[in-house]
Design a protein that fits this description.
Blueprint (H helix, E strand, L loop, with lengths): L3 E9 L4 E4 L7 E4 L8 E9 L5 E5 L7 E3 L13 E11 L2 E14 L6 E3 L10 E7 L9 E7 L2 E4 L4 E5 L3 E11 L4 E10 L12 E3 L10 E5 L2 E7 L8 E8 L2 E7 L5 E2 L3 E7 L7 E6 L2 E8 L3 H8 L2 E3 L6 E5 L2 H5 L2 E6 L4 E5 L6 E5 L6 E8 L5 E8 L2
Length: 388
Amino acid sequence: MKNRKLLFVLVLSLIGQAVFAGSAADSLVINKTTSNCNLINVDCYYQSNKDIDQYCWDFGDGSTMYCSTNDNSASHEYNKVGTYTITLYATSGANTDTIVKKNVVTIHNAPVAKFKIENSDAIRYAPYQASFTNQSTKGDGDTLKYSWSIYDTAFSTDTNATYTFTTPKTYLLGLTVTDNYGCKSDARDDIVIKDSVQKGEFDYITSSCHGYYGNIINSYSIINDTLIVSGSISANCGADKTATAKISNDTVYIRTFESGLLTTCDCDFDFLIKLGGINKDSIPVYFNNELYTAKRYVNSITEIKSSNKIKVFPNPASNYFIIENPDFIQNHYRIKIYNLQGQEVYQNNNINTESVAIKSKTFSPGEYLIKSFDDKNHVFVNKIIINQ
């Protein structure tokens, strides 16, 4: 007679988390079990003095029974919460032995981590002590342990937590919940801490990215009551930026930070800022403490053309208008058109002729800003009036 051993490997994962309980029957020995909620590998050995002709496995979860005549091992994946009995039918000739392992697999309901940042609508300025309320719920476990973290660095194991932020930045707050079965759940949320000099900031009309890094020359201009700022920030281009704009004594102050709600992306930007009552032909603009001058473009289209050599005609336009510049071919220009609410309504990133004709019927009546970018990322601004 042959003495055969059956190797049985269970891989338990997916929905819920698995824990093995109980001991093996005399003829079914289980080794390498772990009592936690991670992926579990279990080796099962079936000892018999018989020649086994067929092995059939019922995993107790409603799945199709697995049978084999020449394979004395099997794998199965449990994906629903519950407790399961594994049954092996070992057939030898006309006889079938039934080996039952009752309640060998339990997949528990895991806890759910959740928390609330108190005063979530408040604007927070460094230094700021934040409070976090734990709203986690239990699964099948009786007890929960907590670990609060900032960028995965733990700072508290209390049920609720507080933390003092000293540096302006956007932080990633985390809460990990673990029950007495070892089942875990994570929750994450951002908290924005701003610089105190950002107090009193106001929103600009719009902001956007060029998609380039580095060498854009800052450009400042005024059309009607709108300050148009384009340029590049020399900073950490991998982090988002926010711009704080203030006006004091007809002087505009703009600063950028790597945290805040008024966020642009990368290092290159467009800002349109409502000036509100500033009627001077030029105004000083401090951008990150460097002084620039924004000059007003008057309504005369001749004066605009002479300033940047780009022609826009007819102006006003009804059916179409043309943007013309002999340098378009050599310098690989791009064109974007914005309405005075700062919304981009047109773009062309591949100009290869001296002129571009644009159908004006697709625009609503009103004034628009045309921004042309050359291959050195210089920005030129024109105005077009659309009549219908």
